[in-house]
Design a protein that fits this description.
The protein has 428 residues and is mainly α. The radius of gyration is 21 Å and the shape is globular. The protein starts with a helix and ends with a helix. Helix 1 runs antiparallel to helix 12 and helix 4 runs antiparallel to helix 7. The chain contains 17 helices and no strands.
């Protein structure tokens, strides 16, 4: 599983960036600023994570073409993914103000929080073309099994972002605007680096750009079909966390700020476990493309065992050092004490969530996105019902319990579908 570790380190640089954003804003005197960044980040979760299919779909197709040693198709997949990302980013930019107005209508924040969130959004939105291109570039690297290159580009982007955060917010006192501008600059710089590396990889792989293949309606339809399923699955996943944050916002600024702090724990967990899932995507797709059943079984077993071990380590760290981590993220006493109450749930979360993350990676590598979509729909219904029952009675404890049930439901539905998916994928 040597492929997993670079992706884990790459992924962990993303929540590290979010933690720095939170820490920089969290040490300013006004809790509303922290709430504004939380709302602004949630909005971009819808916009950008919703287009995460550009990364996942690209990985699945590239890994299977790589397993089949089809260099021409690898080039065609890359071109189609980048073209699709460019079109979608234009759509995002054209609809930016309706999106912002709808988002702020749905979230029950104070006037000060909403004003800060709008300020953040107004700058951050101009990074859309770069953000979507970076998804495709990351999918290319993972699909080719070049996870070290994913590490290089992600660490570069997030390092630039962190440095600019500190310079613009603490050095130039630009506040929320500084955080947003830092992210946009870093995203465009990462695209330039990523495309240079992709070009170098294509020289190594060989093959030709075949216009008929790139613009093939049949292959574009296959890409869109897979992306449609992943899009639905991802939107429901994002809405799960957005609804969590929106419900917390209705409980007051301190509760919302505490959830913003606690979500950094979730981000570290998600991006860490996704390292094994991303490695599984590449290796599962490669094994299926080469029609190697034994290799497929080995990949699934070894990646899952290591993921569970890492989840256990997360639980230990959150259990024994969680209060210290919270203190690093904010020095606002009311927010700290509210966040301490979440630690038991955050400690249990890694062991409940690991199975769903790992199965996602396996299904993406097999390009069985319809099953992923259906499993997510069922899981979301369970979550939404649970949050109606438990949140009113138990407040934030009810929110966390509902999220645990959601993770278990995701794992359970995919586990039931996996045997049939494995048999079908190796036949095609």
């Amino acid at each position: 599983m040597r492929l997993a570790w670079p992706v884990i380190l790459s992924n962990l640089s993303v929540p590290l960036l979010g933690a720095v954003d939170t820490a920089v804003i969290g040490h300013l005197p006004n809790a509303a600023n922290l709430g504004a960044v939380a709302i602004g980040t949630m909005i971009f979760s819808f916009l950008y994570w919703g287009f995460g299919f550009l990364r996942m779909g690209t990985t699945g197709f590239v890994s299977q073409a790589n397993g089949a040693d089809d260099a021409n198709e690898i080039r065609s997949i890359i071109a189609r993914a980048l073209l699709l990302g460019l079109v979608l980013s234009g759509l995002v930019l054209s609809l930016q103000w309706p999106v912002l107005n709808i988002a702020l209508t749905l979230v029950e924040g104070t006037a000060e929080v909403e004003s800060g969130a709008a300020e953040y959004f107004g700058y951050r939105i101009w990074g859309a073309p770069a953000a979507l291109a970076n998804y495709s570039i990351l999918g290319i690297f993972i699909g080719l099994g070049q996870t070290r290159l994913a590490l290089v580009t992600q660490v570069f982007m997030n390092s630039v972002n962190i440095i600019l955060d500190l310079v613009l917010v603490l050095g130039f006192d630009m506040g929320i605007t500084g955080v947003a501008i830092a992210t946009v600059i870093a995203e465009y710089m990462a695209v330039v680096l990523g495309l240079l590396i992709v070009s170098n990889q294509l020289k190594r792989i060989g093959g030709m750009w075949v216009i008929q293949n790139i613009l093939s309606l049949e292959r574009f339809w296959a890409l869109m079909s897979v992306n449609r399923d992943i899009f639905i699955r991802t939107i429901l996943l994002i809405f799960t966390f957005a609804y969590f944050t929106a419900t917390a916002a209705s409980l007051g600024e301190d509760k919302l700020a505490a959830v913003a702090v606690a979500m950094n724990f979730m981000h570290f967990l998600a991006f860490g476990l996704d390292g094994f899932a991303h490695a599984a995507e590449s290796m599962v797709g490669n094994a299926i493309g080469a029609k190697r059943e034994k290799r497929l079984q080995e990949v699934v077993f070894s990646s899952t065992i290591l993921a569970v071990i890492v989840a256990g380590l997360y639980a230990l760290v959150y259990g024994f050092a969680g209060d210290g981590l919270i203190n690093l993220l904010t020095d606002i006493e009311e927010v700290r004490f509210a966040a301490y109450e979440f630690l038991p749930w955050l400690t249990v979360m890694p062991l409940a969530a690991v199975w769903s993350y790992q199965l996602d990676g396996i299904f993406i590598g097999a390009i069985r996105t319809r099953e992923m979509r259906n499993g997510m729909i069922i899981s979301f219904i369970i979550y939404f019902a649970a949050i109606q029952v438990f949140a009113d009675s138990w407040g934030t404890d009810g929110l966390w319990l509902s999220l645990i049930l959601f993770m278990l439901a995701r794992a359970g539905t995919l586990m039931l579908m996996y045997p049939a998916v494995r048999r079908s994928a190796l036949k095609n």
